[in-house]
Amino acid sequence: MGTTLTRAARSVTAVACLTWLCAAWAQSPAVNATEADQAKQQAAQQLAQPLNNRPVWNEVRSGEPQYTSQRGAETNVLIQPMGQTWRAARVPVATIGGFLFVLTLLALAVFYVLRGPIKTSGAPTGRMVERFTLVERSVHWGVAITFVALAVTGLVITFGKSVLLPIIGYTLFSWLATLSKTLHNFVGPVLVVLLPIMIVLFLRENLFRAHDFAWFKKAGGMFSGEHVPAGKANAGQKLLFWLMVVVIGITLCVTGLILDFPNFNQTRATMQLANVVHMVAGIAGTILVAGHIYLGTIGMKGALDAMRTGYVDETWAKEHHLYWYNEVKAGKAGGEGAPPLAAPQRAG
Amino acid sequence: MARMKFLCDAERCIECNGCVTACKQENDVPWGVNRRRVVTINDGVPGERSISVACMHCSDAPCMAVCPVDCFYRSEEGVVLHDKDLCIGCGYCFYACPFGAPQFPQAGAFGVRGKMDKCTFCAGGPEKDNSEAEFKKYGRNRLAEGKLPACAEMCSTKALLAGDGDAIAEIYRQRVTVRGKGSDVWGWGTAYGRPEAPKQPAAPGQPAAPGAKS
């Protein structure tokens, strides 16, 4: 009998898991007709088998809300079984995610050692081209600072227990985790405000064009060293924009808001699902951003200056973003008002 | 050494909420926090049952497993306790707990969570037994005084049993044998796993008695 029960319990759990995944977002209240039906069944049960409480316990395990006089979030639910699923799901997500993150950092280090920073072939001309306006740069750095703060604090909360805690001890790690949690919860909403602005500002230059496929085929010359022509954003940057900023960014913002504001009486099932999605998206985002930060700093000469000062050398523009450079030369890029071609000289 | 457990006899609980009140009184819990609650199934229809629920001090406690700062610990008597000085108020234990035991006093606007508070089986916390600091953070340490949790001691129908798992299971077994019904031990499968569930007496009229469930 024991094995049958175990098997039955297992299948109940499996079905419940599926139901949870489908219904977690919907949270539809129980239909009145079903409730009335259950009551009728209960009454019949009392007559036929007065000593059998089985239907009662089935109801308890279902996680359905019952009656309680205590106020509070889900106080009327006796057993919420999905916490076990959430607990189990966190382990592989964090393990695989953490492994991939470390692997990414190692891969970037190896790439740097083998390939070194990407440089321009020609000598700098000294003539500067405007690449990013002050508004674009401000929004970029706003998003950059908030995202890095969120990524670091998120990593501390997720992996600190197994990585930092054994080294720095309980008291110090608890202090660090409190700081991380508070920062994460307060910086998060700032990103929610900045991200849509970034999407609007950078949307047009990130629309895919026909020439982007040629860029993909050559992997942007990443390994060959060839300078593949590109628009203002190359295909890799466009992919990063759509994947990282749009898809992952919005996912993180939505799930983050669900987790950050528990005062709207969202159920545990919603928060459990949001937490797992937030973890997956967070780790994926951190990995992509690690690649972006590498290419924007030590991976490519002149890239950081573009976002710092807003200007790049003509040689850099010609070699890395030829189509955009031609547009700038023709006075088309940037829309109204051609950017000043021979604007400020390089500071350094 | 005893292994402390709670057992709620659904055939006896009359939903008087005496346990809830006893707990609040004994432990002086923060405003807005109830460490124990009574839930009624099939309220007002035939087959109505009430159950008093709080932290069950699970054998493989989910809260303990998911806590990002590892603030939980298990006492020698199997009571799951936590250190409020380490707790960061992230709410993960609340997501993981099947019984809805972890509570969070609201610490600020927009539902900002304070440090988690939950049933301690009246066993205090990591501070010195019966010290003022311990009482302020965790409530009374009755186990150190040689007493059982206030909720079970207060229970007027003795529906809520607290104490060594084997001892309370034996009391329950006798009850089931005498009254011939209600062999299901609520929550034990979830909290303590199947092997530790008490032996099922064959109840009359219930040849294929369902095992300890939920």
Walkthrough of the structure:
The complex is a heterodimer of chains A (348) and B (214). Chain A is mostly helical. Chain A has two domains: 1-21 and 31-79, no CATH class; 82-329, Fumarate Reductase Cytochrome B subunit (Up-down Bundle), CATH 1.20.950.20. Chain A is 67% helix and 2% strand. Chain A has helices at residues 2-23, 32-48, 54-61, 82-115, 134-163, 165-168, 170-202, 211-217, 235-260, 268-296, 303-309, 314-320, 322-329, and strands at residues 67-68, 128-130, 311-313. In chain A, strands 2-3 form a two-stranded antiparallel ribbon. In chain A, α7 packs across α9 (235-260). The longest helix of chain A has 34 residues, at 82-115. The termini of chain A are far apart. The relative contact order of chain A is 0.13. By secondary structure, chain B is of the alpha+beta class. Chain B has one domain (4-196): Alpha-Beta Plaits. Helix content of chain B is 24%, strand content 12%. Chain B has helices spanning 18-27, 62-66, 92-96, 132-138, 150-154, 165-179, 188-192; strands at residues 4-8, 37-41, 49-53, 72-74, 80-82, 160-164. The longest helix of chain B has 15 residues, at 165-179. Chain B is globular and about 50 Å long. Chain B starts with a strand and ends in a 22-residue tail after the last helix. Classes of the chains: A mainly alpha (348), B alpha+beta (214). At the A-B interface, α1, α2, α3, β1 and α4 of A face β2, β3, α2 and α3 of B.
List keywords for this structure.
heterodimer, A: 348 residues, mainly alpha, Fumarate Reductase Cytochrome B subunit, two-stranded antiparallel ribbon, 13 helices, 3 strands, 2% strand, disordered C terminus, B: 214 residues, alpha+beta, Alpha-Beta Plaits, two-stranded antiparallel sheet, 7 helices, 24% helix, globular
